[in-house]
Design a protein that fits this description.
28 strands, elongated, alpha+beta, about 775 residues, five-stranded mixed beta sheet, five-stranded antiparallel beta sheet, Beta-lactamase, Penicillin binding protein transpeptidase fold, 5 domains, about 15% strand, 21 helices
Length: about 775
Amino acid sequence: MIRAFWITLMRFWRKYRRKLGLFVLAVFMIWYYDCLPETLFTNPRSTVLLDTNGKLLNATIADDGQWRFAPCKKVSPKVAICLIEFEDREFLSHRGVNFLSLGRAFIQNISNRKVVSGASTISMQVIRLMEKNPPRTYVQKVYEILLATRMEMSYSKEEILAMYASNAPFGGNVVGVDAASWRYFNRPSSQLSWSESATLAVLPNAPGLIHPGRNREALTKKRNRLLKHLYKEGIIDKMQCELALAESIPNRPLRLPQKASHLLQKFIAEGRRGQTIQSTLNIDLQSRVTRELVAHQQFLAHNHIENGAVIVASVKTGEILSYVGNVERADGSNESFVNCANAPRSSGSVLKPFLYAKSLEAGIITPKMLLPDVPSKFGNFSPLNYARTYDGFVHADDALAQSLNIPFVHLLNNYGLGKFHRNLKQYEFNTINRSSRHYGLSLILGGAEISLENLTNAYTRMAQEVNSGKSIGIHCDKMDKQEAVPSRTNPASLYEMFEVMTNLKRPGNDHHWEFFDSSRKIAWKTGTSFGFRDAWSIAITPDYVVAVWVGNADGEGRPGLTGFQAAAPLLFRIVNQLPSNGEWFKVPREYQSTISLCPESGLRANEYCPEKVRSTVPTSCLERSACSYHQQIHVDPSSTFRVTDECVAVFEMKHPVWFILPPINAQYYQLHHPNYKDLPPWMDGCGVNSSRHNFYLRYPTNNTRIQLSRDLDGTKGAIVLEASCRNKSTTIYWHLDDHFLGTTSTFHQMSSTPEPGMHRLTLVDEVGATQTILFEVIR
């Protein structure tokens, strides 16, 4: 039976052996063609952060616990020579296998009855590394030979050597020549000496037994043998050899640089784990800014202020040059792991310049226009100035320079809360992600949260818009190319904004900077959040934007934690270290016009303004009406009383020009302007001292009792105050209990939500006529 089967099989073989051979050969060729995977190495990689010049800033260990950098495209010349001369001297000439070495190793292994030589070429070692170092057998060796020859067909020698150098073990948990050069020598492989290159070249031969932290003597001998071989082959000269032999072996793996760790974590959070990222940071500036922040925090530590962040950006390129997300501590204490540069924090006053520029652009104000600064109430919101003082009226630019709260709440109310909210979104304040109604008018005083990144990006865009009429924002990835977008704000308005921001009083020795030729012109602003939780400071020049945040990451407030005291000193120390060419923003004359302004009101001068000054302002300011504060009045011959032609003949009257302010504004204004004079009283019997000749209050009437309704959501409703005027163009100033509510013209309605109890409502028109009533709000 067996004999018959064997005879049948042999007949089948003799008949079909050629076809079977061709079939097996075809199967082998198909396998051989497709035996290499598309990607040879899929090992997890370390996330590596480089500066703009390729210098290592930081790196994290790979997910498998190895220091394995991204594969290099080309091995540095010295390291390449050392690897080839030590591992595979015929590497450049063979096609994946050195058959002479293979035969010699086979004879040696047979003679010694054990494996004493592998004869693996670099190409075969690449295959072995790809297979995760399987057991050494003859079958495995044949498999490696086949794959190595196939690899030689698909990859160049340079690529194969780069794969070996990127994936070979270099002792401990260090994999790849790039990781090894940093771990052992603290510099890139391209900067290694002959001695250092030779040291790395001999490590993959036995990385578990010999590396800088173990068997240093054996490692030194192997390195020296390689160096002497290089000298013998004429690759290095005698002096190079002697100097290389004199160099010592590193003691143990070094700690990698830990600069910009928060930026590295930011990239990882954005999905860049395992990549090598070339950032826009400058390592020298990053180091200086980090030292400045650490030193500043140590100064603030006595007040238990533990955290801070700094960003420095280039206006011209939009590149972030320094990104320090927090004060780093090795033990992670005091929330030092939190990236405060992109954490949402209360904005304080740092958004006021935006509103100033947007109001100029809309023609709502001129740079010197008067803004009300009196106790004011907006529904249930009663803002206060930081110093709890009032000026009555203040020029718009002075209100910005002094960072007064009340004038800017009035300005926001006039400009439009919803419109300003949209403007902030256009400048990519992505943490302002709720409706404008949610924030209310407190938006301008810190009612919204922004990040230091948002703030830097917005001010950088505005500086770019002044420089070129378009902006690209900021970026920290060298490979990230931003598209320019048209200016979002009129450059003349932004230029005026920056000019005003140069007038802020600087801290310390920079207080009188304008008197020193060496001082640089800087636009800057501070901000302080409610409860002294956040201190902001930002500086803008045509070349740089520097932004600083100081505070506690857990939100704890501290006395004295203000932008001026806690953040500004650090800001100016950093700014003063940046190069400067002394230039300022170019004046955008095509967006400006020259007009006559009244110096007292800041409005276009009317025929009665006693002084007129020629001023260059954004063209949009031409839309403002003429000065309404200087008016001609009629007084008796003694200039004691105001009169009409009902009681004094016209030819006996005097007609002086008077600067007229509403009474409550005048009350505070006069405290700071002693030359201001109240209007003369009306002469008895003239019959015009009643406001009914000019306007009357329609609702509520005197001694009315009002019960406020509630909205569907349970919130207390408002009452609508209403007045009528003979002249529809008349402006009426509304005051409730000595709090300024606002102004109306044409349609005279004002919404208010007073508390239960008695209230006094006062209306004043632009010529000083007054009407006051009392009303009661009941529960």
